[in-house]
What we know:
Blueprint: E1 2-6, E2 18-24, E3 27-28, H1 30-38, H2 42-49, E4 59-63, E5 72-80, H3 86-103, E6 107-110, H4 122-137, E7 156-160, H5 167-192, H6 200-209, E8 217-222, H7 224-229, H8 233-239, E9 247-254, E10 264-274, H9 294-308, E11 314-324, E12 336-338, E13 344-346, H10 354-364, E14 372-377, H11 381-387, E15 392-396, H12 399-412, E16 416-418, E17 436-437, H13 445-454, E18 462-466, E19 472-473, E20 479-480, H14 485-495
Parallel strand pairs: 1-7, 2-5, 2-6, 6-7, 10-11, 10-14, 13-17, 14-18, 15-16
Antiparallel strand pairs: 2-3, 4-5, 8-9, 9-11, 12-13, 15-18, 19-20
Helix pairs in contact: 3-4, 4-5, 5-9, 8-10, 9-14, 10-13, 12-14
The structure holds ligand BES, manganese (II) ion and zinc ion.
Amino acid sequence: xxxxxxxxxxxxxxxxxxxxxxxxxxxxxxxxxxxxxxxxxxxxxxxxxxxxxxxxxxxxxxxxxxxxxxxxxxxxxxxxxxxxxxxxxxxxxxxxxxxxxxxxxxxxxxxxxxxxxxxxxxxxxxxxxxxxxxxxxxxxxxxxxxxxxxxxxxxxxxxxxxxxxxxxxxxxxxxxxxxxxxxxxxxxxxxxxxxxxxxxxxxxxxxxxxxxxxxxxxxxxxxxxxxxxxxxxxxxxxxxxxxxxxxxxxxxxxxxxxxxxxxxxxxxxxxxxxxxxxxxxxxxxxxxxxxxxxxxxxxxxxxxxxxxxxxxxxxxxxxxxxxxxxxxxxxxxxxxxxxxxxxxxxxxxxxxxxxxxxxxxxxxxxxxxxxxxxxxxxxxxxxxxxxxxxxxxxxxxxxxxxxxxxxxxxxxxxxxxxxxxxxxxxxxxxxxxxxxxxxxxxxxxxxxxxxxxxxxxxxxxxxxxxxxxxxxxxxxxxxxxxxxxxxxxxxxxxxxxxxxx
Length: 501
Ligand code: BES
Ligand code: MN
Ligand code: ZN
């Protein structure tokens, strides 16, 4: 799928389909007015006749409209003009994309990017349009023996920008939107892949594949032998019950002028399957624990996005690949484990494994003297209880970093909400036998998990993004969402001084 921007009047376009918005009740958007005029009032007459109200979700496809050079005209309902929210805007774009794909227009020009969205500029509208269109087209059919694909899929889509002066920023929005969409797609593909295929080695292969896409990317894989040499005993303990080898993938992006710049580090929890281990999870819904590598998939996606953009930053992305299984060799409740940092942990629940893996990676990354470290993880069921499926949970030891991430979330539409990380919470993870225990009881489960991690992140600015509720959908819509690729990539864009908002 290829996107481009263009400025200019809709009546001059020659295309398989031309798309514009209709507000409720029966009010044409500016592009619609122009088309209506040269069609001699043909379109407004249809609206008056009651063919379309303009409610959100409505579409009307017209053929052979008088005096219009394009084969088709697609009207998309946008709801009330004053109320077009960011979310509705994305939904309007998605509706357009699904309709285009179903109706055989292999190419189209879209004026929905001219719609007014409060507080948002052309860059934002075009970028969101690219991301929403690409989202609408996503299909995971790699494992279907018979693949159903649209007969005439959309191949090329043009988005309108108001004037010629807006073309440059529109093009930047296309570049960024396309890069992020590719990152989101790889994130979703890898996360949706079943755990008998997507194991830690597979994650390593996906990381390695990025080196083919950009000369600025290098990858190093650490198997169990190397993890042992680094003394990452807590990470290794979690993987011990699995036949699948633990693999930590380190992806380094050295953008232009990276030298002398402290790196930004992204760490993703990569539990390719979390059975709970000896503290075995209940059977219902356990298949969804294949998504317990959603954090790693998000980091992989953000690094994939970087591969498409030439940003003057230095970024290290780490996929902490591992599988948590019950076995004769598995770690057990009661075990005391010495982490790479030297701090000891009493294991009270082997299902609190994410923090056991991440704590050693947090220690490992000290060697980079990072400017900031962000870990992202499907860490706690408690986060789903606290925030549901709309916001990721954010906790940090540095307020300015937390703000940067919250802002990136608002800009990208992949939002997070901050929770406290006060000292008081540390008391919940005290242990009589070790420096700490790996669980903190029922209360504030997401915060005590972050409190645990914070003990390993003392040497740098650090933030933790719990994506347990946002990385995938359950139920009828089951599948990976591609979060948190957008928020992470937006944070990196802002760091590179590339943000337009
Ligand atoms: N991967 C899970 C967290 C999870 C559960 C994410 C459900 C999304 C949906 C994590 O490893 C886990 O099992 N956490 C435990 C922690 C508890 C034992 C302190 C949990 O949330 O129940
Ligand atoms: Mn678990
Ligand atoms: Zn887990």
